[in-house]
Structure formats: structure tokens, C-alpha cells
Amino acid sequence: MxxxxxxxxxxxxxxxxxxxxxxxLQGAVEAELARLLRTEGxxxxxxxxxxxxxxxxxxxxxxPGSNPTQMAQQIAQTVxxxxxx
Length: 85
Prior knowledge:
The chain has 2 helices and no strands. It is an all-alpha fold.
């Protein structure tokens, strides 16, 4: 099974990062989300595949001093929870 994840737009309010850091963060979120899907499984409501324009995730509170990897893990875990019914 192939899992392809492409996050077209990742909006972070109140977080100051450069465009290059933003691209790295986006890639890290995609990688962490793919890892979660491989290890935790694809939610039943996503089994048929397809394109989804929005995943409700709720607010994410990034801890002060978080590095990009920690931020990506937190964002991906929140998005993954939002994928479940």
C-alpha cells in the first residue's frame, strides 16, 4: 500500500518562522503523518482513499521552545486525531 501525503497549505498563527523553516516544517509534518498512518493504521473512514480538502484538527498549542521536529510531531498527531470519526 502506498501512502502519499501532500499538505498544500499549513497555517501557523503566532509562530514566527522563515519560509525555508516553513517548508522544512511542512515536510516534517507530512513525514510524521505518514509514519502515524503506517504504524497506527488508516482510519476506517479513509480506507477508500481520495482527496480531502480539510481535516478538522482544533487548536494546537505549541509549547514554548519547541524545535521544528517537536512542532511537526504535535501538528501531525493532532491532524491524525482529526482524521478519525
